[in-house]
Design goal:
Length: 218
C-alpha cells in the first residue's frame, strides 16, 4: 500500500493490458516480415526490440532504414493482419471483474488507447465494457505508431482530473513516459509486448496482473 494520496481515477491502456492480444500482434508483425523477406519472429524477440516510435523497432527488425513509403506500407500490412485476427483475441485475466470491483468501490476509470478511435469504441462496446468508463479515447490519426504523451495530456485535460489522484495502468514504457510527463502515477504490467527488465527501467511499479496493479495504489 502506497503512502501517496489514494487514487480515485484509473486511466487504462487497451492493447496488452485489458485486451490479451499478444498472439495477434506477433502474427501481424510476421505478416510484415513476410512482405519484406524477413524470417518470422516469436513474442520474446518482439519484446526485445519493441519501442516507440515503432518505426525504430521495425528498422531493427528488418535491418534496414525505412522510408516514409516503407512505413506507410508496414503500417497497412500490420493493421490489416491485426484486424483479421481480432476475433481470436480475448480479455485479460481479471477483466471485467476487476473493473467492476473498482467502480463498485467508488473509483472512476477511463480508457486511453493508441488503437484507432473509430474502431476502438465499437470493440470495447462489443466486449460489454463501454459503460465501465467515463471516457474512451483512441488514436484519431490515420497512421499508427505515435507516442502516447500528448494523447494522455489531452485525455486528462478533457476529464479535468486532479493529477495527484490519477493512475495510468499500461504494459509498455510509453505509458510510463506519458504518465511522468502528465504528472500522474503509473503501474506497468508484464502481460504485453515488453520485457520485465525493460519495464523496470522506468522506475514505475511492475506487476503481473490487473489485480496487483490496482492494489498498488488502492
Amino acid at each position: 500500500m502506497s503512502s501517496e494520496p489514494r487514487v480515485s481515477h484509473v486511466v487504462w491502456d487497451w492493447n496488452g493490458t485489458i485486451l490479451d492480444d499478444n498472439d495477434a500482434v506477433v502474427s501481424a508483425v510476421n505478416a510484415v516480415c513476410t512482405a519484406f523477406g524477413r524470417d518470422h519472429i516469436d513474442l520474446d524477440y518482439w519484446r526485445s526490440i519493441y519501442r516507440r516510435p515503432l518505426s525504430e523497432g521495425y528498422q531493427e527488425l528488418l535491418a534496414r532504414e525505412l522510408s516514409i513509403q516503407d512505413w506507410v506500407e508496414i503500417d497497412r500490412l500490420y493493421h490489416d493482419a491485426y484486424r483479421a485476427l481480432l476475433p481470436t483475441t480475448r480479455l485479460a485475466p481479471g477483466i471485467p471483474d476487476e473493473l467492476r470491483r473498482w467502480r463498485a468501490a467508488g473509483g472512476q476509470q477511463s480508457l486511453l488507447s493508441m488503437w484507432f478511435h473509430d474502431e476502438l469504441v465499437p470493440l470495447v462496446t462489443e466486449y460489454g465494457l463501454a459503460d465501465l468508463f467515463i471516457r474512451i479515447d483512441g488514436q484519431r490519426t490515420n497512421i499508427g505508431g505515435h507516442g502516447k504523451t500528448a494523447h494522455l495530456i489531452e485525455h486528462l485535460t478533457a476529464l479535468r482530473l486532479d493529477p495527484t489522484e490519477v493512475l495510468v495502468i499500461g504494459d509498455v514504457l510509453d505509458d510510463a513516459i506519458a504518465a511522468q510527463a502528465a504528472g500522474v502515477r503509473c503501474v506497468l504490467l508484464t502481460t504485453g509486448v515488453m520485457t520485465r527488465k525493460a519495464l523496470e527501467a522506468s522506475g514505475a511499479p511492475v506487476v503481473d496482473s490487473i489485480a496487483e496493479a490496482l492494489a498498488c495504489y488502492a
